[in-house]
Write a structure and sequence with these properties.
Keywords: Membrane, Transmembrane, Transmembrane helix. By secondary structure, the protein is an all-alpha fold. The chain has one domain. 63% of the residues lie in helices and 0% in strands. The protein contains three helices and no strands. The protein is rod-shaped and about 85 Å long. The N and C termini lie far apart (82 Å).
């Protein structure tokens, strides 16, 4: 190899290298908490017939979708809580017993 192409000094420092990590466990646990809370509010809103719980469930479902990673299992959980909340809202505003909801 010609002498002009060989570099003697390497700009990388072995002591400054950092291992790559995908993420922290704290962010995943808050997303799981938001999913659980949204599912809880959605089911509580349907069973207790309270629109406020349904709107809170929709809010937490959107937050969990926006803050979470796009993993297949997590997407299914978000979709199930979102669909439960939307069905509850549809029942509360358009159902035959809409007067029972507060």
């Amino acid at each position: 190899m010609p002498a002009s192409l060989v570099r003697i000094d390497d700009p990388k420092k072995a002591s400054a290298e950092k291992k790559f990590s995908i993420g922290s466990a704290g962010a995943q646990s808050t997303t799981d908490l938001y999913q659980f809370v949204s599912l809880f509010f959605g089911l509580a809103g349907i069973f207790l017939k309270m629109r406020l719980f349904l709107w809170q469930g929709l809010f937490f479902c959107i937050v969990s979708f926006l803050t979470g990673k796009q993993v297949e299992g997590e997407t299914k959980q978000v979709f199930s809580s979102f669909s439960i909340t939307l069905v509850g809202l549809a029942m509360s505003y358009m159902g035959p017993q809409a007067a029972l909801f507060q």
